[in-house]
Amino acid sequence: MKLIIKNALHTARTDYALELGGHSIEVDLELEPGEPPKFLYHGTVHKFIDSIKEGGLKKGSRQHVHLSLDKATATDVGSRRGEPVILTINAEEMCRDGLKVFLSANDVWLTYSVPTEYIQWDKISFTE
User: Fold this and answer.
1) DSSP string computed for 10-65
2) CA 128, CA 115: separation in Å to the nearest integer?
3) DSSP character at residue 33
4) DSSP H or E segment with residue 50
5) Which segment of 7-21, 43-57, 72-86, 110-124 scores lowest on mean pLDDT?
6) Considering the entire predicted model, what is its pTM?
7) DSSP for residue 62
8) What are 109's strand-pairing partners?
9) Which CATH class is domain 31-123?
10) How confident is the model at residue 25 (pLDDT cuts 50, 70, 90)?
11) Burial degree of 50 (CB within 10 A; 0-12, 13-18, 19+)
C-alpha cells in the first residue's frame, strides 16, 4: 500500500494520526532533495551515543532521520527521552558528498542516515 500525503502536517484516519515524517506506516512524502544550511542538529540521549559513534544515525523503524535547524529544537526533541545530547551534523558536506537531505512541509530536515564522519564529535553538547 502506498499512501501519499501532500502539504499536510497530519491526516486523521479512524483512531490514529499519520505524522508527516511517516513514523507509523510507510508514507510517500514526495520530498525533493534540498540544500540545507552548513550545520543541522540532532537531539538524542546519552545511552545512544556509543551506538551512534559506531554506526552513525540510522532511521530505525522511521522513514527518515530527523534533523533540526537549531540547537533549541534539537534540545526539545532530545528532552523527550531524558537529558538531551545535541549532535552537530555537517549537512552541507553530506550533500556535497551525494547524500540526500529533504526539507518537510513542517520545517524538519530529513535524511536516510547520517554516517559518523558527518557528526562533529568535537561540538557535542550534553546540555544547552
Assistant:
1) EEEETTEEEETT--SS-EE----B----SEEEEEEEGGGHHHHHHH-EE-TTSSSE
2) 24
3) B
4) helix 49-55
5) 7-21
6) 0.76
7) S
8) 67, 103
9) alpha beta
10) low
11) exposed
